[in-house]
Amino acid sequence: MSNYHIKHLEEYYQVYRKSVREPHNFWEEIAEEHFLWRKKWDTVLSWDFSKPEITWFEGAELNITENCLDRHLATRSDKTALLFEPNNPDEPAQHITYKQLYHQVNKMANVLKSKGVRKGDRVCVYLPMIPELAVAVLACARIGAIHSVVFAGFSSTALATRINDANCSLVITSDGAYRGAKTIDLKGIVDDALNSCPDVKTVLVVKRIHSKITMKPNRDCWLQPLLDAAPNEAKAEVMKAEDPLFILYTSGSTGKPKGMVHTTAGYMVYTAYTFKNVFQYKENDVYWCTADIGWITGHSYIIYGPLCNGATSVMFEGVPSYPDFGRFWDIIQKHKINQFYTAPTAIRALAKNGTELIDTYNLSSLKVLGSVGEPINEEAWHWYNDNVGKRKSPIIDSWWQTETGGIMISPLPYVTPTKPTYATLPFIGIQPCIMDEHGTELQNNQVEGRLCIKFPWPSMARTIWNDHKRYKDTYFSTYKNMYFTGDGALRDEVGYYRITGRVDDVIIVSGHNLGTAPIEDAINEHPAVSESAIVGFPHEIKGHALYGYVTLKEKGESRDHNNLRNEINQIITEHIGPIAKLDKIQFTPSLPKTRSGKIMRRILRKIAEKDTSNLGDISTLLNPECVQDIIKEAL
Ligand code: 6R9
């Protein structure tokens, strides 16, 4: 029996039990047999959640790119590593083989070195979904630089905050991005951002849309000529197991994004192992994850997990609606996709467009359908199952987070019987539990509470960049000796988990995590605004959309409310990005507050959800009278 590839339910239970009873032996075997090390570890795991301090494979030395690239050259050099499907369906797809990717990464690594980037330096990558994005990420890893990929939908202010927080010295971007029928001026956004980033010395620019942009002398360079001139071999830097591999920002409940730090060895082992099993990847399969590499899903399951397994991983530059809502099905047919991993918001948007288009495509190559990013509602689950999978491909509803690095709770296709809306069973080595509000673990089945994890796993984030205290406070202080996920969950009668949604101030809109605090901070900058509170409300396609309650400085402010609404959304777009725009904005003379001055979002949430029959206890409010006014004026 190989513990690396689980093929039956009994095997799952057997391996799971071993991984929990003897975690050290278990992970040692996986690491030993399936990866390339420069030096083996002294200690498999040491941990203390009270500090919190976690190390995996301490003492080991490796380079993750040797695992993703070099070791495949002997057997898979002509196999497609990345299959790039451009935004425009008439532009030919690119099949980049392992050998070609190896050389491209090495060239890029040499360019970075020639620009003075050294081990431990931070490099910001702000690129559309083009091959250079994956190449840049791997090139950083090759030379031991820490990559910080910022999703190219973020605004210049959001980009600048992230560049400065990590003190990046170099930015890689492009002259622009294609997005459906539109183009986006990425370089212009970078130029704006860099007005407030004094430490950035170099900007490397990929030519993608051939637009006219300004190149700042002594700072900006076109990337291609540098690549052409660079040698195509670069020595892989020898990294320690716990050296940081990357920083990736995620929203939190304060205004500042959290730079989650992932380290090298544990992240590699866990993402590779989960990829193999959660997608049941076989040697000649073509795997497609539709996420953007700007999010953790793209890091772990477009780049590192698949490449570590020698897989063919598709990168799609465009959007599901361009040139029409058949694009996903067209790509599945064209590249004979075997595993397809997408988000509930995309499924809902596609479902809304009916099944006429989908029925004209041949989707028979599909074997596994994945879902990630937010709870998948029952209707979307069935639509996906009936129309995409034709009831033949299991749906893998995989729960995990930026912080967890890899998939934590998920069925294994053809192994775990699925159940609509349930992420089902913990992955090997994962020990979830459900806690009540008093900090007691609910041991039985058929319980509901808050989801925690009791024991470390290899790919967990080790800290927040420059803010270890916040890491401890956010994840390890709510419950003693537990990692707290911020999600609610229930466990059914057979032990299956269902994730019920966030229990903190994070709202997931179209699969993007948005903290309420940064949005409120942005709105409050509008000169007419005194205060604001954001809540989520159910939305047919986005899952949740944002509802803002705004109080104005001057009572009876006579300005046109629609103009104000536009201005508020404009400020949000500038500070965060269009993804954080509010669907509804209600102006109200005051917000319900507790005696300690906290806005009672619970009530505002109910009003936004149009569920005002039971508002619960409002007696602790300082100003209970405002509640009826808000209900009366609700949108
Ligand atoms: C991978 C990713 C994390 C949050 C997480 C949870 C929600 C993700 C889910 C899910 C229910 C699933 N989430 N997958 N909720 N079922 N299958 O999405 O990371 O962007 O950090 O979001 O997303 O609320 O806490 P990230």
What are the key terms here?
635 residues, alpha/beta, eight-stranded mixed β-sheet, seven-stranded mixed β-sheet, 19 helices, binds ligand 6R9
SSE topology:
Blueprint: H1 9-21, H2 23-34, E1 43-48, E2 53-58, E3 61-62, H3 64-68, H4 73-76, E4 80-85, E5 94-97, H5 98-114, E6 122-125, H6 131-143, E7 146-149, H7 156-166, E8 170-174, E9 177-179, E10 182-184, H8 186-194, E11 202-206, E12 220-222, H9 223-229, E13 239-240, E14 244-250, E15 258-263, H10 265-278, E16 286-289, H11 296-308, E17 312-316, H12 327-335, E18 339-342, H13 344-352, E19 368-371, H14 378-388, E20 395-397, E21 432-435, E22 447-453, E23 463-464, H15 468-475, E24 483-491, E25 497-502, E26 506-509, E27 512-515, H16 516-523, E28 529-539, E29 543-552, H17 561-575, E30 584-587, H18 601-608, H19 625-633
Parallel strand pairs: 4-17, 6-7, 6-8, 7-14, 8-11, 11-12, 16-17, 16-18, 18-19, 19-20, 29-30
Antiparallel strand pairs: 1-2, 3-13, 4-5, 9-10, 14-15, 15-23, 21-22, 22-24, 24-25, 26-27, 28-29
Helix pairs in contact: 1-2, 5-6, 5-9, 7-8, 10-11, 13-14
The structure holds ligand 6R9.
Ligand 6R9 binds at residues 250, 295-297, 371-375, 397-402, 423, 485-487, 499, 502, 508, 513.
